[in-house]
């Protein structure tokens, strides 16, 4: 317990320092992490990527937006008391839902059906939009762990983000489903900025070959480009960390997987946000798209 409290205090102090020294008045960069199918390690990538950004000095909010299988709390071994649903119902403020994570990141736990609940009351929706808009200005990066698949709520998260990190692996079904996600997302938002992570690749050759298959299909049939953000190797530290409910970047910071994750975070930060994307808040974009749908 003492160690947990000490870690929590260190995380809070790290976040407070970043908040006090950062620029105010600009919205965070919104990054949606998604996958065409479940079981490819999307949430683990989301969590460790958020921690990597935190290690690089960024103020990070990780939103668990998987309305069906929210599990960031499980990966961290923490207990959730308040979620976005409580904010919508008026029983909590946004600040009440936030949980301090490693490297000063903050986490908004997931809640089944929370986004859909916002459709039911215009007054509540406007209040939440305003609160989330203000909340975003406290961060450099808002990283959204979406669900897997092509449901309407997932596509709204994906097509509303500045960047999309698509997690897949070398299995043919995973590649096919990743292509399907890119096809639908690009149709709904041609300005989509897609970056691919090949997870659990046995070697660089397989990772490159997997990406090139996906890239060739996207170029030939969808006529746009995707970017290889990087790949995570098959690394024994990953399942060990999951079993211990500790992010592998924290538990095994010098592992091959951790090194690869930090490199991907560096690379993504160097990629500029496309100017054609509007600068409104993430949640506001979602409901703008809903209104147009």
**Poorly predicted spans:** 1-6, 11-25
Portion of residues in beta strands equals: 15-25%
Task: Provide the CATH topology.
Answer: Rossmann fold
Tell me the series of helices and strands, N- to C-terminal: HEHEHHHEEHHEHEHEHEHHHH
Q: Strand count, sense and closure of the main sheet?
A: 8 strands, mixed
Shape summary = globular
CATH architecture: 3-Layer(aba) Sandwich
Structural category is alpha/beta
Give the number of helices.
14
Account of the 3D structure:
By secondary structure, the chain is of the alpha/beta class. The chain has one domain (2-292): 3-Layer(aba) Sandwich (Rossmann fold), CATH 3.40.50. Helices cover 51% and strands 16% of the residues. The protein is built from 14 helices and eight strands. It has helices at 2-21, 42-55, 72-76, 84-88, 94-97, 114-117, 122-136, 152-160, 172-188, 204-222, 237-243, 248-251, 256-270, 282-292, and strands spanning 29-35, 60-64, 99-100, 106-108, 141-148, 163-168, 194-201, 227-233. It has an eight-stranded mixed beta sheet, with helices on both faces. Helix 2 (42-55) packs across helix 13. Mean pLDDT is 82; it is low at 1-6 and 11-25.
Quickly list its features.
293 residues; alpha/beta; Rossmann fold; eight-stranded mixed beta sheet; 14 helices; 8 strands; globular
